[in-house]
Amino acid sequence: MRVAIEKGVASEEEFGLVCRRRPVQRLKHFGWGREGEGLSREEEAILLARYGERFGVDRFDERSPPPLAAIELREPRLAPPAALQTICSTDRYERVAHTHGKSFPDTVGGLLGDYHQAPDVVAYPRHEADVATVLDWAATAGALVVPFGGGSSVVGGIDPAVDEGRFNAAVTLDLRNLNRVKEVDRTSRAARIEAGIFGPALEAALKPHGLTLRHFPQSFEYSTLGGWIATRSGGHFATLATHIDDFVESLRLVSPRGAIETRRLPGSGAGPSPDRLFIGSEGILGVITEAWMRLQDRPRFRAGAAVRFPDFYAAARAVRAIAQAALYPSNCRILDAAEAYHTAAGDGTHAVMVLAFESADHPLEPWLRRALECCADHGGIADADGSDGGAAGRWRNAFIRMPYARERVVPLAIIADTFETAITWDCFEALHDRVKAATESAIREATGRGGLVTCRLTHVYPDGPAPYFSFHALGRHGDLIEQWRQIKVAASDALIAAGGTITHHHAVGRDHRPWYDRERPPLFAAGLAAVKRELDPHGILNPGVLIGPAPRI
Fold first, then answer.
1. Which distant-in-sequence residues (6+ apart) come within 8 Å of 371 by Cβ?
2. Which of 82, 303, 372, 494 has the fewest Cβ atoms within 10 angstroms?
3. Is 21 exposed, middle or buried (0-12, 13-18, 19+ CB in 10 A)?
4. CA distances (Å), 319 to each of 354, 403, 455, in order?
5. Could you tell me if 159 and 99 are in contact, meaning their C-beta atoms sit under 8 angstroms apart?
6. Given CA atoms 337, 341, 342, 344 in this order, what sign does their dihedral have?
7. Which residues contact 92 (CB under 8 A, 6 or more apart)?
8. pLDDT, mean of residues 69-84
9. How far lies 157's CA from each of 262, 358, 516, in Å?
10. Distances (CA, A) of 339 to 334, 398, 508
11. Residue 214 CB partners (closer than 8 Å, separation 6+)
């Protein structure tokens, strides 16, 4: 059964989930989330106490970001033609809010009031034809175009960086009005969904059909389907369907040369997959406008536990046993002792595993029981309180609230950032030790004092894990970007030297370009550049991402 529903975000209820029964405010021009949102006083007090304890200080050198009205912007360098004026804006808020993503350098730029790269025009297409018209106009006007979903990039993926020698101006193409679930195929468990829909609205629209995409990146509330596809987002599942790739049945995008739509199939062996070319293309080949997505029945059965281990490597060996036993938990995340302490999931004396299974079809106790046996084989002890009130619940709450912390700590000159990778099991321990040591050393050299480097495993495969590192350092205002860069370069160099990937799910953007250039085969890079020239002959789409001009780092 297929149902055409053309369902958009028409009401507060449909926006759903976290936003239900709450006025929908506009997104902040500085920081995470919507205006009026942020850490509670209690959360802030706990956060600052932990940082004060870590750095041995009781006061921080605090600076305040400028209010919107005080931000200096250059005059727009072009104006939209009459045919596009109704969908374009040169409003101060719109230009400022579309200048930066959510990376550490983006946050520092906002703190300093640096919006010199603000887009000249922000376009809000209402349908696919508007996207094509904007691309035609930009090419004629010599303007670059940055596709924009929720603006949650943490790798410099949406910065409208104008190379004055190549482009006259910058246009940001915000797809939020392409927000409908257009058709549901209940028989095949799939839906045709526009790319600009935000995570909560997507799930709210699928709920009446008893279906779910069940792709929950940390940015879920403030990111879009098109952004997930363009960046090969990692989501909810720790095993099997770890990336958005696994859910894309077909897609449609608009390039400067025209529209491309792939065939909707459960699988195909007909040559290289065109879907795979566009998934992860980060906006350089075209603008994804809609996709058929594979869905699931909503889960009815759940089983989970939190497990304590004497050390991180013992926990990792248990994870490997679970992954290679083909148990396929939905969550199999481990936190080292410092990470567990920093997020209130542990007391700092042991590593913690957050383990969970879910199904729409059958009870899961046998799977959980076998997974706990694997844990016990490696010294794991199940928490007496494995419910939402225990370590697993505390971790999940900290995970959801983490993005709000950056806007609070960067004004205190605290450098807090993350990076992630993937590596085969045989190389994991060596990579972990090498990367952690290099990052700790770089923190000392950059800041003159020690910092904190923690690790967790976010996704796991039978042949290897995805380690996710966090680093925390006390920097100096005026030097934050350079200090961050010194740490980032050392960590990234160590990742590549140890055989890992520069990113498992955060995307490449401009921040990871130097290491992506080293990771990918040279002839593949040449082939990608040839495809780029064919689909985007004027090179207007997101220059500097994946290929093209030199990156910002």
1. 322, 325, 327, 329, 332, 355, 357
2. 82
3. exposed
4. 11, 27, 14
5. yes
6. positive
7. 68, 69, 71, 73
8. 96
9. 25, 33, 14
10. 9, 11, 25
11. 235, 236, 237, 296, 299
Per the listing, tokens 């246009």 go with 171
In this prediction, residue 14 has a pLDDT band, given cuts at 50, 70 and 90, of very low
Q: Which residue type occupies 206?
A: L
Cα 71 versus chain centre, distance:
27
In 3D space, the residue among 252, 255, 206, 201 whose CA is nearest the CA of residue 229 turns out to be: 252
By CB atoms closer than 10 A (0-12, 13-18, 19+), residue 270 is exposed
pLDDT at 15: 32
For residue 457, give the nearest of 270, 321, 313 by alpha carbon: 313
Closest CA to 194 of 174, 172, 177, 219: 177
End-to-end CA distance of the chain: 50
Q: Which helix (H) or strand (E) holds 211?
A: strand 211-212
Q: Which two tokens stand for residue 337?
A: 């002792």
Please report the pLDDT score of residue 1 as a whole number: 66
Rounded to 10 deg, the angle between the 312-324 and 365-377 helix axes is 140
pLDDT at 16: 35
For the domain 1-30+65-298, what is the CATH code? 3.30.465.10
Q: What is the CATH architecture assignment of 301-497?
A: 3-Layer(aba) Sandwich (3.40)
Q: Is the pLDDT of residue 7 over 70?
A: no
Report CA Rg, the chain.
Answer: 23
Q: Backbone dihedral region of 272: left (phi > 0), alpha (psi from -120 to 50 degrees) or beta?
A: beta
Q: CA 288 to CA 309: how far, in whole Å?
A: 44
In the chain, what are the domain boundaries?
1-30+65-298, 301-497
Could you tell me which residue, 24 or 482, shows the higher pLDDT?
A: 482
The type of residue at 185 is D
209-253: per-residue pLDDT in tens? 999 999 999 999 999 999 999 999 999 899 999 999 999 999 999
Tokens of 45: 């007090």
- Give yes or no for residue 553 having a pLDDT over 90: no
